[in-house]
Amino acid sequence: MLKDFEAKKHESNDVLNTEIKELQAKLLSQQQLLMQEKIPVIVMIEGWAAAGKGTLIKELISELDPRFYHVVSPKIIPESAERYPFLCQYVQAIPVKGKVTFYDSGWMENVVRKYLNHEITKDDYRNRIREVNEFERQLRDGGYMILKIFLHISKRKQYERLYKLAEDPKTEWRVDRDDLMQHKEYKRFMEAYDDFIEKTGGKIGWHILDGSHNKTAVRDALKLIVQKVDVAVQDGRYEGAIFEEEFPLKEMPKLSEVDLSVSIPDDEYKKELKRLQTRLSELHNIIYRKKIPIILCYEGWDAAGKGGNIRRVTYALDPRGFDVQPIASPLPHELNRHYLWRFWTKLPKTGHICIFDRTWYGRVMVERLEGFCTEKEWKRAYNEINEFERMLTDWGAVVLKFWIHIDKDTQLERFNNRENTPEKQWKITEEDWRNREKWDSYEVAVDELLQKTSTKNAPWYIIESNDKQYARIKTLKIIVKALEKACEKHFKQMME
């Protein structure tokens, strides 16, 4: 790899210029094909400091229609100041179908720099390698074309370029302490880059280009993009294989086996509600100070009582430290990205609580049953969701998932009550009645998702809600217990 890389012999500038112009014209025509075929493209340019990443991107986009591409330069935020999962800013920048995103450095530089700076441990490094591979596979399976380029230069060439930049008052700002440290530790960085390239090659391999000659690098990068786009347009949308990883699962009953007769007396309900809300309020202050992110996921039957359950939770919380995300049908710009994208954009900061009123599980329920995705897509989703939730818990989040459960007769009673009560009529729609007709199909889908996605790190809890008061108390107890456990775990880690 990098240590064995041989620089190319210098080529005629006239020949290179001719080739570059032809390739740029070809790429411009391909841009329209990408829009027509709705193929999203990610081009990631990594490499050494002063290798010419910015210059390369400038040449790659010079002839393109600026309405259909975007260039991002993600910041490497110090680990101590990071408030979101490390992949979050990269996921948020993925393009819609038909457009291209160029990353001016990406997840490689983030992971390698933090590991060599001792901001993350060896275990963290291994986890992030795994997360990168999962993220790239999910994008590829979702129809994204991904090209990963590493611009390589020698230590001598890097010194010459850094020196030239630092000596010019107009460009000295472009050389920072991290760049100088990378040059000083060139061998150590090269070994780390090689390791990352080897471990994240897989089906989306890396392309190492000679950055010593800018025009050669531009020509070679354009060739790669043009070739890959030709293949993507010719082959059409890639439909990935169904990949299944073994996750430690919590045993779950079928919905039909759940006893819905449980209830709680009114006086006990009022007493427990006050006690649990008081304790939850205390814990909210603690998790805010300790910067522990909390993600609460609500799914359930229509009219099961999700809204009232959520209100009893949020009543105990400081409104500055939580957010409720009601999830409806995806908007056009959401439909045109990977289905998990809209949830990545709604994650809480560390120390905050996010409550999802319906979630990413729509992929294996409504989208599955209504034909909004293919069979391969929803079958892949179980594993993709488990990977997503593992990323969240590895980040340090507490993830709790509640299925608010009622029987069919109770739902009918509540539907009729809503229709006959003027102030509640807005709660009942034709879609609710249509979904009710598919109760049996939904029950099969829910049983399957409970069996396949109730992992030890992100478990499902079935909340019996024929008695709404019982459901609220059970949910609050689960949340309080989980937050107490998270605070205790955080304290033990601080003492180690």
Explain this structure.
The model has no long low-confidence stretch (mean pLDDT 94). This protein has 19 helices and 10 strands. Strands 2-3-1-4-5 form a 5-stranded parallel β-sheet, sandwiched between helices. A 5-stranded parallel β-sheet has the order 7-8-6-9-10, with helices on both faces. The radius of gyration is 26 Å and the shape is elongated. Strand 2 (69-72), helix 3 (88-92) and strand 3 (100-104) form a beta-alpha-beta unit. Helix content is 51%, strand content 12%. Helix 1 runs parallel beside helix 9, helix 4 packs across helix 8 (186-199) and helix 11 (306-314) crosses helix 19 (468-495). The relative contact order is 0.12. The protein has 2 domains: 2-235, 3-Layer(aba) Sandwich (Rossmann fold); 255-495, Rossmann fold. The longest helix has 28 residues, at 468-495. It has helices spanning 13-37, 53-61, 88-92, 107-116, 122-141, 155-167, 177-184, 186-199, 214-235, 266-289, 306-314, 332-335, 341-344, 366-369, 375-395, 408-419, 430-437, 439-453, 468-495, and strands spanning 41-47, 69-72, 100-104, 145-152, 206-210, 294-300, 322-326, 353-357, 398-405, 460-464. With 496 residues, it is α/β, with parallel strands linked by helices.
